[in-house]
Design goal:
The chain is an all-alpha fold. It is 72% helix and 0% strand. The protein has one domain. The protein has 13 helices and no strands. Helix 2 packs across helix 7.
Length: 350
Amino acid sequence: MKLPAIQGLRFLGFLMIFINHSYWLFSKNKWFDFGARGVEIFFVLSGFLMAYHYGNKDVAYDLKSSIRYMLRKAKKFYLLHLVTFFAMGASFWNLRQTSGWHYPGGRTVLYRDVILNLTLLKSWDARSIFSFNGVTWFLSVMLFIYLCLPFLIHLFKENTTDRGKAAVWFLGIFLVKIIGDTIGYTLHWNPWPQTFSYYANPAYRLIDFVLGYLGYQVLRPLNSNWGNLACSFLQVGSLIIYFLCCVLFDKIWLPAHFVFLSVLLITAFMLPDGIAQPIFGNRIMVHLGNISFELFIVHQVLISILANRLKTISRFNSLQIWLILFCLSIIMAECFNRRLDSSNRKNVSC
């Protein structure tokens, strides 16, 4: 069964992140933490879809097979990562030539960040998380998830026929998330502040993915025979509640609460009927969802390099600059998506 509304929801997650990285064009303050919420949707949704596609399948889960799977996935996006990395490097070089700018921390820090970026390991070191193309910390996390996925499929396979067991796993891991978030975000205690980040560490972010994976196994929305009206009510209600909670409890709730809300929101959007299907599942939204990965990787580079230049060399207002950056992100993402699809088809034919 196809899940068109889910792709539209994926694009909504990207849009929240894009707003988070460009809100300063309009205001000094943002309404809520768009970026963090959008990233949570990405991770939870990835877990949902992996459970949907692979939860009841037999997969090889030895270390060699897991590494091979991880590298195969990395091969699909590594070229795009390199392009954005060198684009930011060229921007740094231009700043150095025109204004005497120096890389923060000096050459030693630069070499460290270059190595961690090129090896897709920068999320393991809190000092390098947002270096070069800042959003590519996400790739470090996804790489670790790909490494762990075959083991997770094997570990939770029995849950496909036992919702109760899946619920126990979900509640247990959600409790771990609550405790970890309380320690990190409320008590502000970090035993390894120079290396560990509660926001971006791959091992910690794996929890969000696992909660999405288990959330699907507990709720299994596609097995529900809801009517169109009931589906619409759940979808609209869940979306309204989600955004109201984001606005009202942004600095009050822990990330775990918003992860739980993401589970409920995605569950509602996976229902086969309802108003979400024509709104979020139309061809335009589905296509934008299909290129959301590329959008996520390229948008920060465009904002970093072009936003201030457009403000100084043109008469465009903030909204026009925002629209230009947004459209350029779509154009670049489309180009990379087509290239990657073409490469993947060639690999399959070979």
